[in-house]
Amino acid sequence: MSPDRFEGKVAVVTGATTGIGAATAERLALEGCRVVLTGRSEQLGKELEDALKGQAIFVGGDLTLPGVAERIVESTMSAYGRVDVLVNNAGVDLVGDLLETPLETVRAVFDVNFFAALNMLQVAVPYMCGRGGVVVNVTSRLASIGVPMMGLYGASKGALLTLTRAAAVELAPQNVRVNAVAPGMTNTLMYKTWLAAQPDPDLVYRQTVASIPQGRLAEACDVAAAIAYLASDDASHVTGASIAVDGGYTAT
Fold this sequence. Notes:
Layout: E1 10-13, H1 19-30, E2 34-39, H2 42-51, E3 56-60, H3 68-80, E4 85-88, H4 103-124, E5 133-138, H5 151-171, E6 176-183, H6 189-196, H7 201-210, H8 220-231, E7 242-245
Parallel strand pairs: 1-2, 1-4, 2-3, 4-5, 5-6, 6-7
Helix pairs in contact: 1-8, 4-5
């Protein structure tokens, strides 16, 4: 970790109030980046803004609503005059039977996991074109594999992975890099909430850990480190890539 790796840079991190988003915002700020935090929780956003001590501002909003992406980017430009990095991290989970999940439920998940990320990219990237910038999309191990009851969530993340690769090619002439980070099971509030809903959480936890070659869940800071790498000049010749942060799960 370098305290000046992102000196002079500005990043927008969506879904920044908890979990991977909060860890990413903290990591970027520690490395000298100015960070615009987004999320739906005003309380958590303001708490993180205060904790980052002048390195960040919070701009609340629901990214599925019209005009919110524009307001976030406009606030970024007003506060800092530039946007160098966009981390599309906001996401929601979905566990459901493929044949029985209502389409309105699926659309609501795609609205957050795919369309909100696409909208943020469309609004933020024009400020990067020419002088350079980076987009990092947070997908999932489930973008690349099939798991029963997780197919619809995985489809939303798979769409984001495909967008990542196509955008990397299309935006390369504009000096904009686009990459993805694909976390496995990560020890966040989302995972803990899912685990608590299982009939036997202890058994499910042991089975999950046993399926990971490294023998542990990812921590949010593990994912944040990969995001920081892709956002930095250390990855200047990396675009269209997806880094799995899953302890070897998808390698088996």
